[in-house]
Write a structure and sequence with these properties.
- The strands form twelve sheets. Strands 13, 16, 19, 20 and 21 form a five-stranded antiparallel beta sheet that branches. Strands 28-29-24-30 form a four-stranded antiparallel beta sheet, with helices on both faces. Strands 5-6-9 form a three-stranded mixed beta sheet.
- It is built from 40 helices and 31 strands.
- The protein is an alpha+beta fold and 1251 residues long.
- Helix 1 runs parallel beside helix 3, helix 20 crosses helix 22 and helix 24 runs antiparallel to helix 36.
- The longest helix is centred in the middle third of the chain and has 37 residues.
- Pfam families: NPC1_MLD, NPC1_N, Sterol-sensing.
- Its main location: membrane.
Length: 1251
């Protein structure tokens, strides 16, 4: 609210209300003519003579315009009667000037102003004054008698009707009722017709010439003979014969009958869950339970299954040949790989890292990003917001005795608390001033004149200290009034909190201090209602800074913001509990988050490395530790994994793809967890071989790679495909994460089947030569000999002797199937109930000051962010028909832009629009209608301020249409710049510089005529603090914008409007997050099915089993997200896509082992579980668990929730399905029918860890 508003009154000179003619009585006048001036006001000369003729044509024209009902009656039926009045021409001119001030607020509603005007006329000029007016006269020293005050007898019904006709008028600059300006110390909510009249008759104000005491008919004593003025004013929706009814925005009776917006339809629910999935899950669970129980009786044999392999030999032969080559030429392979790694990794120097939250969360082609860029390019970026939330540690209410009664104040207004807050504000206002880097250099000063240098007092600071004009002496002023009441700062606060647009309450910047921005923590009220600001528990200090599209020009702002943050970080107080944030704080927190997690990520890597180094070897004794360990091979494998990450960074650096620190930290962890699995599988498969069957080491290694290569290709291909699908996301942070991860996964696979194979060959030569691990120059006396297959490891023994017999026993299998059926069906029930969104504080480090700021914002923020309705070029604003599509006043269309926005604001609980939108068009038309507002310099023919008293400044020569409601096109185009340059004051409250200087973009031709291009209409929203509130608001404003654009199309206007708010860009994803999730996950499932189908040689059975298990894992992950309060957003969606890819690892190896085994289904399932299952547990589950567990100690909630919790869920749920459910399902299958070509490859030798 950067506007200089004004306390205007209704009648000011002489105020009363509408009047139909009463029976004329020759009772004389109470005044006639003017006697003298008191201040700026002329006083009326006392008179007791009858009305007399008005013989001034100009004054008669003014009277006819202002008082048409009286004029018509007094001129008689013929219109030729002599006009006799109780006022002369000077009084008529004074009356017109007073009503012109009222026009500045109430002229939007002609019926209101006509009602007001009639009673002003009755009081000022009516022939029968003495019937309802009683004067109190005084005599001047020169003997002239004048009227010092009057008693105005008025019926309550009349006054109430007049008040009601005006009560709905909106002040378009603020979106608040005009009665906020016109009822003295009361706002529209607390005003009444009596309070309104009493304010307008109070001579203590600046605009009332003498005291007008209203005497009400309902207070008259019984039997009183006094007469009261009784009039018959029209309702706001009615119109006088030569006038217009009030428009919809100002009069609800004039609004067309429209249905209230309903918002999104709530889905059918059962017990708080989506009804459809609830019923489907329940029925599916019952059916499966019956099938399981029936099958457990053994009355039907399981069907025979077919697992065909049509061209599996191709992959086996290819990988065997490739492995043999790499193992035979390890030095050459390592040299080539090192050169490739160096060349690709060099691209890191071109890599760019961003911490800009907009660049992280909004894609270039997203609608909100396009709209933001459009707004920034045309109107400039939104202000830089520096804010402090302050709560009182002492939360006790207190009272203050005042003339209006016993006032109760909240703890935010306790004297010592306020004093310390104001002292804090003064310190902040002085930050950097001595060094020439103060707030005056970077602040937003909305009412500063062109060429004027800003001072700190010109800066827009929203703080209740502004009610005291940042003057501690004013705040400390205390005295006792004539009635014995103590008058102090609390009385000032009472007035300003109730009516912030009192001129005495304006801040030093020249505009009002909005209570909804400056105080908070009031008791909750219904959406759209104003809270009781006097019960505030906290205060808000807001320092607005200028923003720039050119980031290089923001250095002064960032320097001051750093001073701001640094000072508040060290600030301590016994009374104040503060939370703060600068515009730069979020970016700083993102950097802090990334840097703060480096230690956590490094520890995670070290834990995985130690585990791999120990588990990879086949250590049998302490004496042979260095001979049997494979620490150097483990190091080499991990280096290869990290090299794949650096290559990914370098590759995308060459491609100029921006990334984030979060991606750089998480991707190595992810790729390490995935890549280590392959290391285990390749090494253990090689160890399981009967080396005596092979003449050379490289042939044995080639055989191992031939056996496991297809399986590794299957998992790597699935993961690559899933990450590639994740790269389809429109969110840059997610998209780049997926792109970098996909490239790292692919490069890791390529390096592992080349460089790591070469390292295996070199390490095996070391073993055969009897050299020690890590001490290659030291050779033992005893050389290693070629061995047969490695003995069964401890873990595999446990599986074989204990776990497999237990799991595959009939009772346990039935129990497992029933438990997984129940869990999966329950998960399916709750998946649609997963909440969407990402809490703001979750994206910050726990110890960041921004986290506390977000929490206090929920408690203390009382008004929502501004919504800008941006209207693109396409309208000719100077034409009345096109004005009618936009404006909200008289003669405007009932479906105009302003009317639609007003109608929507009446349902804030649905639309989240708290107030009607401001409208520069309506204010410009009203401004032009007041003769003294538009002025030009006769010497320069240029612009003059409306409050200029220069003799060279004269009223503009304006022309209006026949009905007088609108300016002609020439007038409109010529004086629009004047309106946008003019500052509001008492005479011209609707001048547009403060409110609209930035809202209208126009061009001026050679003849000085302006043409409006882009413009916006500002509207405040309700308070939004959660993701759901923000995306619901975005959905509603897009619906409203669509309806307005439809209206443009219907009227054949080539214009377009959209709603912009600085926060929308972060929440657009949630409007389509479910559709995006289903699409991405669907593509991922299709991808793994296709990859598995191809790698298994078109074995559709194996592909379907893998697909089914991954779907089950995915459904149970959804259930875990619901139970663990993990919201659905872009980060969790990518993790779900990752879950699909990693889920294949837990399933595919066991399915492949089951397929190659011999015997019954029970025997094959036991074999695959014993051999491959133990490898899955040691090489996949434990490896990932070791790294993931460390993330639980992260300082970042993003790491804890979306990486620790979700990755832990992926590992545990994947392991449960792969090691528990899958073997049970496989054991229930019938005899295996083979349709495979003969293969020279022996069955897969499952790997295990010698533990």
């Amino acid at each position: 609210m950067n506007v200089k508003y004004l306390w205007l009154m209704c009648g000011l000179l002489a105020v009363a209300f509408p009047c139909n003619a009463q029976e004329e009585q020759e009772l004389g006048c109470i005044w006639y003519g003017q006697s003298h001036q008191i201040g700026n006001h002329w006083q009326n000369k006392a008179d007791r003579e009858p009305a007399r003729a008005l013989n001034n044509p100009d004054a008669e024209a003014v009277f006819a315009r202002r008082c048409p009902v009286f004029y018509k009656e007094y001129k008689g039926a013929s219109g030729q009667d002599e006009l006799k009045l109780c006022c002369d021409e000077n009084q008529i001119y004074a009356m017109d000037a007073g009503l012109s001030q009222a026009d500045g607020v109430y002229s939007r509603c002609p019926t209101c102003t006509r009602n007001m005007g009639q009673t002003v006329c009755a009081m000022t000029c009516a022939k029968n004054h003495t019937l309802f007016l009683t004067p109190t006269n005084q005599i001047l020293e020169n003997g002239v008698e004048y009227v010092e005050s009057i008693r105005y007898r008025l019926t309550d019904v009349t006054a109430e009707k007049v008040y009601n006709s005006c009560a709905g008028i909106q002040h378009t600059q603020t979106g608040r009722p005009a009665m906020d300006l016109g009822c003295g110390g009361f706002n529209a909510k607390t005003c009444s017709y009596r309070r309104w009249y009493e304010f307008m008759g109070d001579v203590s104000g600046d605009y009332v010439p003498f005291q007008i005491t209203y005497v009400w008919s309902e207070d008259a004593e019984e039997g009183s003979q006094e007469q009261y003025l009784e009039l018959f004013p029209l309702e706001c929706g009615e119109n006088y014969d030569d006038s217009y009814a009030c428009a919809c925005i100002d009069c609800e009776e004039s609004c067309p009958l429209t249905e209230a917006p309903s918002g999104p339809e709530d889905p059918w629910q059962i017990a708080g869950l989506y009804g459809v999935t609830f019923i489907v899950s329940l029925i599916l669970g019952l059916i499966l339970a019956v099938v399981i129980c029936w099958g457990s009786l053994g009355r039907t044999a399981p069907p025979s299954i077919c697992m065909p392999t049509l061209f599996g030999e191709f992959f086996y032969v290819g990988f065997r040949a490739w492995g043999t080559f790499c193992a035979k030429h390890p030095v050459l392979v390592l040299a080539l790989c090192s050169w490739a790694i160096a060349g690709i990794s060099y691209g890191i120097r071109y890599m760019s890292i961003t911490t800009d939250p907009v660049e992280l969360w909004a894609g270039d082609q997203s609608q909100t990003r396009i709209e933001k860029d459009y707004f920034d390019q045309h109107f400039g970026p939104f202000y830089r917001n520096n804010q402090i939330f302050i709560k009182a540690i002492n939360q006790s209410n207190f009272t203050h005795e005042a003339a209006s009664g016993l006032l109760t104040f909240g703890p935010a207004y306790e004297y010592n608390f306020l004093k310390e807050v104001f002292e804090l504000q003064e310190v902040i206002m002085k930050l950097g001033l001595d060094e020439g880097e103060g707030m005056d250099k970077i602040c937003y000063a909305p009412v500063l004149l062109a060429g004027q240098t800003a001072t700190v007092d010109d800066c827009l600071i929203q703080s209740i200290y502004g009610y005291f004009q940042h003057d501690m002496e004013k705040f400390n002023t205390t005295y006792e009034d004539n009635n014995g009441y103590t008058i102090n700062y609390l009385n000032k606060l009472e007035d300003c909190l109730r009516v912030p647009m009192l001129e005495d309450c304006f801040g030093t910047y020249g505009g009002p201090i909005e209570p909804g921005v400056a105080v908070g923590g009031m008791p909750k009220v219904a959406v759209g209602d104003d809270p009781d600001y006097m019960m505030a528990t906290g205060l808000v200090l807001t320092f607005l800074g200028k923003n720039q599209n050119d980031a290089s020009k923001l250095e002064p702002s960032k320097k001051w913001e750093k001073l701001f943050v640094d000072y508040l970080r060290d600030y301590k107080s016994d009374r104040l509990d503060i939370a703060y944030s600068a515009e730069r704080s979020i970016q700083d927190a993102i950097v802090e988050l990334s840097e703060g997690e480096v230690g956590t990520v490094v520890i995670s890597y070290v834990v995985m490395f130690i585990y791999v180094a120990i588990a990879l070897g086949r250590i049998r004794s302490c004496c042979g530790f260095l001979r049997e360990s494979r620490i150097m091979l483990a190091i080499g494998g991990i280096v290869i994994v990290l090299a794949s990450v650096t290559c990914s960074l370098g590759f995308w650096g060459y491609m100029n793809v921006t990334t984030t620190m979060l991606a750089i930290e998480v991707i190595p962890f992810l790729v390490l967890a995935v890549g280590v699995d392959n290391i285990f599988i390749m090494v253990h498969t090689f160890q399981r071989l009967d080396h005596s069957r092979f003449e050379t080491t490289h042939e044995a290694i080639g055989e191992a790679i031939g056996q496991v290569g297809p399986s590794i290709l299957q998992t790597a291909g699935s993961e690559f495909a899933c990450f590639a699908i994740g790269a389809l996301s429109d969110m840059p942070a997610v998209k780049t994460f997926a792109m970098y991860a996909a490239a790292a996964i692919l490069l890791d696979f390529l390096l592992q089947i080349t460089a790591f194979v070469a390292l295996m060959a070199i390490d095996e030569r070391r073993v055969l030569d009897g050299r020690l691990d890590m001490l290659c120059c030291v050779r033992t006396k005893k050389k290693a000999k070629e061995e047969g297959p490695q003995d069964v490891g401890l873990l595999e023994q446990m599986f074989k002797n204990f776990y497999s017999p237990f799991l595959l026993s009939k009772p346990v299998k039935v129990t497992v199937l029933l438990i997984f059926t129940v869990i999966t069906c329950l998960s399916l029930m709750v998946v649609p109930s997963i909440e969407k969104g990402l809490d703001q504080e979750m994206s910050m480090p726990k110890n960041s000051h921004v986290v506390k700021y977000f929490r206090y914002m929920v408690d203390l923020l009382a008004v929502g962010a501004p919504v800008y309705w941006v209207l693109k070029p396409g309208l000719n604003f100077s034409e009345q028909l096109q004005q009618n599509l936009i404006c909200g006043g008289v003669e405007c269309n009932n479906d105009s832009l302003s009317v639609q926005l007003y109608t929507q604001s009446r349902y804030p609980e649905i639309t989240s629009l708290a107030r009607p939108a401001s409208s520069w068009l309506d204010d410009y038309i009203d401004w032009l209608a007041i003769i003294d507002c538009c002025k030009y310099n006769v010497t320069t023919n240029g612009f003059c301020l409306s409050n200029s008293k220069s003799d060279d400044c004269l009223p503009c020569e304006r022309e209006f249409t026949e009905n007088g409601l609108r300016p002609t096109p020439e007038t409109f185009n010529k004086f629009l710049p004047y309106f946008l340059f003019d500052l509001p004051d008492a005479e011209c409250a609707k001048a547009g510089r403060a409110s609209y200087a930035d809202a209208v973009i126009y061009t001026i031709d050679d003849e000085g005529m302006s043409t409006v291009q882009d413009t916006y209409f500002l509207q405040y929203s309700t308070t939004s603090t959660t993701s759901e509130e923000f995306y619901s608001q975005l959905r509603e404003v897009r619906r409203i914008a669509g309806e307005i654009n439809d209206m443009f199309v219907e009227n054949q206007v080539d214009a377009e409007i959209f709603a912009y708010c600085v926060f929308y860009i972060y929440y657009e994803q949630y409007l389509t997050i479910w559709e995006d999730a289903l699409f991405s996950l669907g593509l991922s499932l299709v991808a793994i099915f296709v990859v598995t189908l191809i790698i298994t040689g078109l074995d559709i059975t194996s592909a379907l089993i893998v697909l089914f298990m991954v779907i089950c894992i995915l459904i149970n992950m959804g259930g875990m997200m619901w139970a663990w309060s993990i919201n659905l957003n872009a980060i969790s969606l990518v993790n779900l896509v990752v879950c699909v890819g990693i889920g294949v690892e837990f399933v595919s190896h066991i399915v492949r082992s089951f397929k190659r085994a011999e015997g019954t289904a029970q025997e094959r399932a036991r074999h695959s579980l014993n051999v491959t299952g133990s490898s899955v547990l040691s090489g996949i589950t434990l490896t990932k668990f070791a790294g993931i567990a460390v993330l639980g100690f992260s300082n970042s909630q993003v790491f804890q929730v979306f990486y620790f919790r979700m990755y832990l869920g992926i590992v545990l749920i994947g392991a449960a399905h792969g090691l528990i459910l899958l073997p049970v399902l496989l054991s229930c299958m019938g005899p295996l029918k083979r349709m495979a070509r003969a293969s020279s490859a022996p069955p897969i030798a499952p790997t295990t860890t010698a533990t």
